[in-house]
Design a protein that fits this description.
By secondary structure, the protein is α/β, with parallel strands linked by helices. It is built from seven helices and six strands, in the order H-E-H-E-H-E-H-H-E-H-E-E-H. It folds into two domains: 94 residues, Thiamin diphosphate (ThDP)-binding fold, Pyr/PP domains (Rossmann fold, 3-Layer(aba) Sandwich), CATH 3.40.50.970; 35 residues, no CATH class. The strands form two sheets. The chain has a four-stranded parallel β-sheet, with helices on both faces. A two-stranded antiparallel sheet has the order 5-6. A hairpin with a 2-residue loop joins strand 5 and strand 6.
Length: 138
Amino acid sequence: MKIKISELIVRYLERIGVETIFGIPGAHILPVYDSLYDSTIQSVLVKHEQGAAFMAGGFTRAFGKIGACITTAGPGATNLVTGIANAYADRLPLIVIIGEAPTYVCSGLIAPDTLIRENNYQRLRCHNESETNLQTIF
């Protein structure tokens, strides 16, 4: 069974009980928004990413459910930081989804074997698309 990653994310959110998600669509997160359209999760469009994080925290405080926010990469992600820090300080459960450039862009745009990301002290290198598999990433 083949499934898009965006659909997998939305199904997971539904499974853990997310009912409402706050955010702003952007280029890197549009596939997730497309999947949200067909789900039971209500998407609330906000005017600023920082507001999305604070609204998700307020949703958790008001209803005792998991708060969730979503935005695109770059400045959108940076704008969430204050709201995330606030939720962390208040020990609120918050799910934050941030879009990122697809991994296939590394073939041809940068040299092979160039370090593209460092996560949890594990270096990920971009090789040929056909050589990339989930085991090397996770």
